[in-house]
Amino acid sequence: MQGSPADLWSLVALLLHMAAAIGAATLAIWLLPRASRLGTAGGASVVALALTAVWSVAEAIELRAVVAGPVLETSRNLLWLLVVYRLFVGDGRAASLAPIRPVLYALTFVELLLLGLDLGYARIEPALALQGPVFGVGVMLRLLVTVGALVLVHNLYGGAPPDARRALRWPAAGLAAVWVFDLNFYTIAYLSGAWPHEIAALRGLPTIVLVSLFAIGASHGRNALRLRPSRAVTFQTFSLLLIGGYLVAMVMIAQWLSYFGGDFARLINLAFLTVTSAVALLVLPSRRMRGWLRVTLVKHLFQHRYDYREEWLRLTRTIGATGPDAPPLGERVVQALADTTGSPAGLLLVCDESSGPALAARWNWPSATGAATLDPSFALFIERENFIVELDGIRAGSGSLPGGVDVPKWLLEDSRAWAVVPLIHYDRLVGAAVLARPPLPRKLDWEDFDLLRVIGQQLASYLAENATQEALAESSRFDEFNRRIAFVMHDIKNLASQFSLLARNAELHAEKKAFRDDMLVTLRNSSEKLNALTTRLSRYGSGGVDKLDEVAVDEVARAVVGRFAATGQVLLAECEPLRATANWHSLEQVLVHLVQNALDASAPGSPVLVSLVAEGRQARFDVADSGSGMSPEFVRTRLFKPFVSTKNGGFGIGAFEARELVRAMRGRLDVDSREDLGTRFVVRLPLAVADTTYDDAGFEPTLRSEKAA
Fold it and tell me: Among 3.40.50.720, 3.40.570.10, 3.30.450.40, 1.10.2020.10, what is the CATH number of 308-472?
């Protein structure tokens, strides 16, 4: 025979109240010699826990109808109010907050009044009409005590200084759990006009929570037991709760529609389900929705916006990516910084030896071109101040930075650009990162700035280390080249020895025909070897210039074009009679290299145009072709790297040497190139009449690539 529902609820009440009684008694006994751990509230807490254990036993055996039940409940409530007061005394606020004692006196008076009502209510006959009003007044007074107690607990924790909240966290949470449950319990009793026995059976549950939280607060290991959910777990949990709430709401609305939909209830339900499912599929997976949810949770649930452990691990994983599919270091640097702020794209601008930061890598930003550079004044400002530039604020304001420093125009015109983060290594600007605006726009605050600066310094160290490794590798390749030259010198020495020996033998055997025949063969072979050797080396020198003179550079241009006249491809488009400060042989070597490169990159019969014009105080040489062209990344990272060649058997130092020769002549070498369209090399040298107005530092070469169409 199955038991009735009342018996089942009585069993639940018995189990919960007995568990609460055992827990409260155990904690009271354990806390008795350790009462000081709860400060001035320790003694009151021990007595309150002991009395709570007795009250729980009384509730378990259903003594509410007798005198002991109301007396024990009133005593329990008064002792917990005393604990609250002692907690106020512990941090000295009892003396400064005058309303505390009157509130406690009022709540004590109401509790004693309730005790009288409870004892009188037990003696009223059920048939009397007075029983209902007495019950209503008693429940209202209990609600008043519960609300007053919750207000005290809120002020206890909310008004405490930050260093005191650590000790008050667990006791305040335990007391709030009991009184919040009682608030709902008495509210239901008042609205229903009767004692809710099913809910009353669960009153042992908040007592168990109270005992558990007090135990944590009094424990030495309370900090270790502190709940620290990770942001990922919090985000996923909240997402599941959001989805669950969404489903519950949909079920309730669908049920409501089924009541009011009439004959078309099923059709309305199906249409509603279809529309809401479509909306959920569009909204819930969106990047903007996830960004809003993450920002909201972090803002309200965590003390700091970032989980620094996770940020460090993510940064390490991104930078340390290896394998054939791993992106280049520059892209990884941009991605590591962009992921920090949730930016969907970014650019990396790296400082060159002779110019300001220029585009070196991009991540999910294909529209950026080689024109993405930072002005020297802007670069100097962010280096000196370690200043992170928030571009939205600049756009909304004056358009300039403190001190009158102007933001590069292309940054303000590109609506995706959101922030510029300097990458500084040992007080030196290694580069800068431009971050795209996140899907959920927001203003950067102090925590963003601090984290971005630290990550920027870390990434700058990676870039500096990589540059050092490349320099060491380049030095190693130079050593290898020097060893190769040693072998070449050895061959030249052997040829010189043969010539010397031949000359000595000629003095003794010149009249012999057989010797003359052998001598001719030896001379021919040695000459061929020497010519082949000099041809290989004629295009490569030390990069230095012995002497600068006033040179008729138009004659140099014509001589170079005449040297390639046999190809029929090299044309002199324009040639003004100009005189510049240069070295004839060095300039000729530079132009020969550029023309030869243009021929190598062009199809047979495709013209290579050479021109010389005056441009301000400079003589400008243009060598243009319509060949295969080069990408901005290749121009930036490989074109002028020694020993990097796309030609079979090439040394890979021609472009490097050409640039060094132009630098030595106090000029600059630029290159504009677009893939599949062609390349134009531009050499600028100071005109002889303007040479005295320029110094060596004014002609450092720079690189730029044309803007994308």
Answer: 3.30.450.40
